[in-house]
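Here comes my example:
=====
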Amino acid sequence: MTDQAVPGTALLVIDMQVDFVTGSLAVPGATELLEPINEIIGLPFAYRVASKDYHPPGHISFASTHGRSVFDTITIYPPKSLVAEKGGDTETIEQRGLQQTLWPDHCVQGTPGVELIPGIKVDSSFDFVHKGTHPGVECYSAFKDPWGLLDTGLEKNLRQREVNDLYVIGVAGDYCVKASAIDGAKAGFNTFVVTDGVRSVHPGGKEFEEMKAAGVVIIDLAELKKRMQVVN
C-alpha cells in the first residue's frame, strides 16, 4: 500500500450536490454514493477537483423559465451576444441548435440545493469548477459547454499539474459524468469512470457503452485500487 500521491493522477467528483442527491432533481440511488465516494476520495490522487452545477435564477435549462412542463424538450441555441463576444460567427447560430430537456429548478446560486451533500469528504485540498453559470448556456461537462463558448479552466488546471490519468465519479452518469468523461478523453487524458462511484438518471447502462466508444475506460473500485497501488 502507498500513502504517497501517485504522480499524474487526478480525481474529478461531479456534482455531488444536495439537489442532485436528495433535492429537486435527485438521481435514483445517489444517496448510496456517500460511502464509496468517500473511500475513493481517500485514495492517493495527486490532484483532486470537484464540479458544481451553479445556475443563476431563470436558467435556460429550467422548465419554469419557459412556462413548460418538466422533462419537456426544446431546442436551444448559443446566445448571439456571447457568440459575438467570443468572436464567433453569429450568422450560423440557427445551425447550432441542440435538444434540451427541461428540468426542475436546481442548483440555483445562493440556495441550499447548490451545496455539496453533508458528509462528503470534499475539503480544502480540492479545487472547484463551476458550470452552467451563464443564464443562456447549458453545460453538462465540467470542461466546457457544448458550443465551446465557456471554458471552466479544468483542462488548463489538469495540464498545469501534469495529469495523465483522470478518474471520474459522481452524478449523473448519463449526463454530467458522461459529458465530462468524454471531454476528458477528447482532451487527451487517459480517462476512467469508476462505476462504484456513479449513479444515473436512466437505467440500462447505455451511457457506459457511449463513453467506451469515445475512448473512456470503465472500471470498478477494485480495479481503481490496483491502479492506485492500494491493496486491502
Helices lie at 18-21, 34-41, 63-66, 80-85, 154-160, 173-186, 206-213, 221-227. The radius of gyration is 18 Å.
